[in-house]
Amino acid sequence: MRSSPDRSGTARRHWRELAERACTDEAPFAAAALYPYAAPRERAGLEARMFGERRDRLLLASAPFVAPAVLARLAALDDGGAVQLRLARNPATSAAALGALWRADASPRLRQLIARHARTPRAVLGQIAAAAGEIETLRALCENGGVAAEVLATVSERRIGVLQRLLAVNIATAEDTLLALWAEADDEAVRAQILLHPHCPDVLLATVPASLLERRCLARQQRAPRALLAELANDRDAAVRRAAAENPGTPLAALVANCFDADATVRHAVAARRDLPPALAGCLVDDADARVRRALARNPACPPELLVRPATDADAEVRRAAARHPHCPHELLDRLSRDEVTWVQAAVAYRDELPYAVLRRLARSSDVDVLAGVARHPATAPSRLARLAIHDCPDVRRAVILNPRTPRMVLRLLRQDGYALHRAMAVDHPRFADTDRWRMRDDPDVQVRFRVFQHFARRDAMPAAHEASVHVTQLSHYQPHPPKEHMETT
User: What are the coiled-coil residue ranges (predicted)?
Assistant: First the structure.
């Protein structure tokens, strides 16, 4: 909070109005935006709005964008199964809240969700492992990358076949546990996953296995001996050769033959290597497969002098890849900006370092992909951005907001954009003024209002509430449901 008396008075007036609006808002999220920053005496009214109706508690329990403090308070209410299950699924639920949800007599489904959650405290995971009797809970535990290695070792000692592959996949599984799994496993998929594991025992990386699946995984193992990788780079199976060609540990000398491999995917893997020597790049620049030429043209390791041929390639995607090369010469960019295919021109437009004459030429295009690149370019003139901010295509308008140098007067044109996504993004733009944000406190979209309320709550937070707000997770993308994190398996 600033020390200016006038600013303090404005902050208090803003806070009072926001609190009144939050308590009467149709959705509980406005109150949730204020809650982490409210003084203790102010939280009772906000809690009444957030938690008074079961429907609102269910909404908050599922929302990944609300502050952990709200979810923790909700977890402490002991509100029954549906709310608890949603909290246990919510990726934003804190470790403390998950600890409050855990109890030995919890339902099997709740135990499974807590066992799988990335933020569950290790002590709780250990208790779940000790108490769990059903396979599904143990399965969820084995899928949690934050579990302690000793807990996974305990689970491994149960010798449950259906859990072996999950244990072999889990990044936390220790070397001795993997060695024990290798001795017990009859499934080649389990052994293959052990060979791929970052903690794979060195003794298992000494010889080339007979199983095709195991060789494919060993070829991806970055700790495998270089001599072994060189042998796998000449394997009879194309997938093994491709994996070895992608492995940064494979000696470059072993890749010469792969540049002329009969399988195009192997040559593609070589062309995409970030340590590709110029000599090997020269072998691939005229490859018969356009996908190989495209990978090479996009590769920063490709020498700029070799880009002349990709820039005139018959395949438009290869020319586009050349336009995206980080060191593409300006004379080639000028040529590609005149390409007959607008998709190639768009690749030029999305580059930050462009000669002004090229940018001005692209700005005269009518293609929306090209104009989107122009709209996000930091050197685009404000007058041009103002015209693009009212373009019919939402992608172009969105690019204007993504431009960090878009001036405030242009951003104000997007304050009433038909897409709630754009209005929410404008609220977070560094050049958007607080007076503009304040006028959006009645926005019809709940998440736009959430961002507005959160901004002013954070700005005007009382000193007593400031410490509680330090760890608030900010919403960086407008998405009701964030992408799920998956663990990669063979």
Answer: none
